[in-house]
Design the sequence.
């Protein structure tokens, strides 16, 4: 079977769920090899990657790799593509990994597909474009396909791989050291899962009414182990931080369950959540377009409905 | 400081967006063309940097003739001049081809700083700024929510999942911005009138020393094999809250095994 490189997403040494999804997907296409870039590698990480099918783990765990923006990781992957001749390179469709994919594509003169939601035989990729309005099948026609896959698009399945480690020596070029990270600032986000990775997202919009009232949304999210999102109306009003905005100019999420509270469902918002598997809408306005997408909807005041729902979820646990 | 701000005309999100059945590229006639929203933030940031540090702001766009509307919008906001890369040979270029064509043009016109929006609302690949940095071999300062320039160096706050990174580089560089960075100005009447007299240079593929075999639909690195309108979602159950809306929602969640 041909080798498929999977760039590992990790935070504080923990392998992120999307990587397990990519390994699951890669097993259908060939033999997955995980690529670990940057510090933080541990036996735990190795175990996790092997559990989901990584036959090999390429390790490039020097700080140099992550101390500069994007370029060193693209160099690392380009080096591995030239040494190992894989059939494809898979990355998560996160902002940074897409940039890595983009730079890699130029380095290895290969096509790149972004925001892919499914991969079929022959590396034909499914994409959902124009805010979910059009489904596209596309493929790379030159070079080694580079595919950025959206989190939550593949159900994870464990299947042990050997997890054989191979150290990769990389010398980050001077050119790749142009943009240096001098500080990493962590902003409070509590213990909630990351927005783009979360299986459940609870979002609040204009109907929430104030920053204080977002606690209603947060409580429901916490009862479900969900991430919190917000519509642009809510982030523009300053009720919730911008990085939680779901929509065309914010994050695109594709969770198993999306709960929209007090969100009318303008196209700008729908572009960021339309591929959610199950959608629940709570809104006072029965004409709100969000109800056109909803599998279940409640026409009512979120300030009544959401706390009651939270109580019920807690009760039924 | 010589600032070039790249802008893109996109189909208005509020209108129906389609692909053409013949060559599977964007149907530019089906929807109204508007300036990509994040490009307005890029123009604004370029103007703010010019106001603080002096220099000149040049608008660069690649697109068909009608993209000149988008150029005028950026000029009306206050940019000084524009370059319109327009050539049938460019039609259907993918991100690799587009980044190549823009990089060649940027080399030709020269720059200290290139500013872009971090993503377009049509293709939404979010890769162009990174690709330009790669092609131009200059520092990549992307997803900026803040930009500071001090003579030869530049610092940005790069938005990340956990907050942001402070990133430093020297000029020249490529910057992409997120919408949090500023509040784009509306063109004033005076600005709109002045824009009509500002110089717009039209360049074709040969003028920009673009190798035609590296651009256009036929030379792209990827292709759309097929497409179809997404099937509509099945109609859901909508209930009116009679004091038990939360309970009913919980019942629905239970039926789907979420609780």
Sequence:
């Amino acid at each position: 079977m041909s080798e498929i490189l999977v760039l590992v997403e990790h935070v504080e040494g923990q392998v992120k769920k999307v990587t397990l999804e990519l390994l699951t997907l890669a097993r259908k296409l060939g033999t997955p090899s995980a690529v670990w870039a940057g510090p933080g590698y541990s036996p735990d990480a190795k175990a996790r990657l092997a559990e989901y099918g990584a036959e090999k783990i390429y390790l490039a765990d020097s700080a140099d790799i992550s101390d500069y923006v994007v370029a060193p990781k693209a160099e690392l992957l380009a080096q591995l593509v030239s040494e190992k001749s894989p059939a494809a390179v898979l990355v998560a469709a996160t902002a940074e990994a897409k940039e890595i994919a983009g730079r890699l594509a130029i380095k290895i003169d290969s096509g790149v597909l972004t925001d892919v939601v499914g991969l079929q035989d022959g590396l034909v990729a499914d994409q959902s474009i124009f805010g979910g309005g059009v489904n596209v099948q596309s493929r790379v026609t030159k070079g080694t396909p580079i595919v950025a896959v959206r989190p939550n698009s593949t159900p994870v399945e464990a299947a042990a791989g050997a997890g054989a480690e191979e150290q990769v020596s990389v010398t980050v070029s001077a050119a790749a050291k142009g943009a240096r990270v001098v500080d990493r600032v962590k902003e409070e986000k509590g213990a909630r899962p990351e927005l783009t990775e979360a299986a459940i997202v609870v979002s609040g919009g204009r109907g929430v009414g104030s920053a204080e009232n977002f606690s209603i949304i947060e409580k429901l999210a916490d009862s479900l182990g969900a991430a919190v999102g917000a519509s642009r109306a809510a982030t523009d009003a300053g009720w919730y931080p911008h990085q939680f905005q779901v929509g065309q100019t914010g994050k695109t999420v594709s969770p198993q369950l999306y709960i929209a509270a007090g969100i009318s469902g303008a196209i700008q918002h729908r572009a960021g959540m339309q591929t959610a598997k199950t959608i629940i809408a709570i809104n006072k306005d029965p004409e709100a377009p969000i109800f056109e997408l909803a599998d279940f909807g409640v026409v009512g005041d979120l300030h009544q409905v959401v706390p009651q729902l939270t109580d019920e979820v807690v009760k039924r646990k | 400081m010589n600032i070039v701000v790249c802008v893109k005309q996109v189909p208005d999100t509020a209108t129906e967006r389609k692909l053409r059945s013949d060559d599977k590229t964007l149907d530019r006639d089906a929807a109204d063309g508007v300036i990509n929203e994040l490009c307005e933030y890029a123009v604004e940031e370029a103007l703010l940097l010019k106001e603080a540090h002096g220099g000149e702001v040049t608008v660069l766009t690649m697109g068909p003739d009608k993209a000149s509307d988008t150029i005028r919008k950026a000029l009306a906001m206050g940019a000084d001049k524009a370059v319109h890369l327009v050539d049938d040979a460019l039609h259907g270029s993918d991100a690799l081809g587009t980044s190549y064509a823009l990089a060649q043009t940027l080399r030709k016109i020269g720059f200290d700083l290139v500013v872009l929006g971090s993503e377009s609302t049509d293709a939404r690949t979010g890769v162009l700024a990174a690709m330009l940095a790669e092609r131009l071999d200059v520092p990549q300062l992307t997803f900026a929510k803040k930009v500071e320039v001090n003579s030869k160096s530049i610092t940005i706050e790069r938005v990340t999942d956990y907050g942001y990174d402070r990133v430093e580089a020297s000029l020249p560089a490529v910057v992409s911005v997120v919408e949090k960075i500023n509040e784009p100005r509306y063109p004033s009447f005076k600005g709109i009138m002045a824009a009509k007299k500002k110089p717009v240079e039209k360049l074709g593929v040969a003028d920009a020393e673009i190798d035609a075999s590296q651009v256009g639909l036929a030379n792209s690195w990827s292709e759309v094999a097929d497409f179809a309108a997404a099937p509509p979602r099945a109609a859901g159950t909508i209930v009116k809250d009679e004091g038990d809306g939360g309970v009913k929602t919980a019942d629905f969640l239970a039926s789907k095994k979420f609780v």
User: Anything to note?
Assistant: Residues 3-177 of chain A form a domain with the Rossmann fold fold (CATH 3.40.50.620). Chain A touches chain B through 96 residues (CB under 8 Å). Chain A has a mean pLDDT of 95. The CA atoms of residues 37 and 128 of chain A lie 29 Å apart.
